[in-house]
Amino acid sequence: MRRAPGLAIAAGGAGLAAWLLRAGRPVPEAMGARASGERAARMAASPEWSNGKFHNQQLRFEPSSRSLAGSVRELVAGGQERHPVGDVPLVREPLTAEVDGLHVTWLGHSTALVQLDGTVVLLDPVWSERCSPSQQVGPKRLHPVPVELGDLPPVDAVVISHDHYDHLDMDSVKELARLRPKTRFVVPLGIGAHLEKWGVAPERIDELDWHEDAKVAGVRLVATPAQHFSGRGLSRDGTLWASWVIEGASQRVFYSGDTGYFVGFAQIGERYGPFDVSLVQVGAYDPGWPTIHMTPEHGVEAHLDVRAAVMVPVHWGTFNLAFHAWSEPIERLLVEAERRGARVVVPRPGERLRIDAATADAEPTPWWRSVT
């Protein structure tokens, strides 16, 4: 028996309403919390804070004047291959805690595991399928996470660069706090309010301004400048963003977080370098966003500015967040790195790298070309 058109429309409307309810239910919690009390007073005392928000102090570039219509046209008709045509090759080997020296494991996007002097530091953990306040909508993974969160070695510190959804994932934070009751969360100013709302005890949180540090299991973690913005809702810049220095007894790691290219990198290199390895954002760029995301060429320049021996590119290949082809960042990066004499290693997601002289001399294996 054929359903009457009016009944079909009503049924469709009810289904849409139910879907919208499911999609919207987790959003208020995922948006986090605003700082208040002592936390807000400490933020207001920061040199980077004025007029009720954090600010970038030195902008080298200005955004382009590309219109919204131009951006939509690029999205619809740009013609770039924004997804891999095959399965991204993953390395699913167990990540043990007992390793000597310095090791870096890229787990996709900006999530990486740094193992130094027996200490395990997890950068910007995002295990969710989508980087969004709702798992019903938003940018979806181009490849699975290569290692389940529960299969990580014991994590001493979780380091967050800023509070955007592709770097601060509520569900991953909750699970880490539950699975690893001794893990510390080291974050820029203001982000502790989000963590506390999600059940992380205040004594497990270290909130830092730029150039402040925390020591975890013998490793020093320093919040350093970046040029970006923050926010999980309509209001912006109510929490600080940062790059990070991870300093062991004899080796150092630099992580850029999300950032436009700026003079701060040379200053970081002078004050905290040289570094054995840099993890640098190279994807999700656009001519209209030079103040907040670097191009691959600027990523190479930042790597050289901080005086790192080898570069591991991050923030590419996992989520489709810009108009360029999914593998374009790495191809452009390798061209610029060869021109500038920079050493680059491009691991597969889940591949653990031992950072030493042999790593710096290795030629990148172009695994991404098999799925491009």
TrEMBL record:
One of its GO terms (cellular component) is cytoplasm. InterPro entries: Metallo-B-lactamas, RibonucZ/Hydroxyglut_hydro. It comes from the Bacteria. Transmembrane segments: none annotated. It holds the Pfam family Lactamase_B_2. Residues 121-316 form the Metallo-beta-lactamase domain. This is L-ascorbate metabolism protein UlaG (Beta-lactamase superfamily). It comes from Knoellia remsis. The lineage of its organism: Bacteria, Bacillati, Actinomycetota, Actinomycetes, Micrococcales.
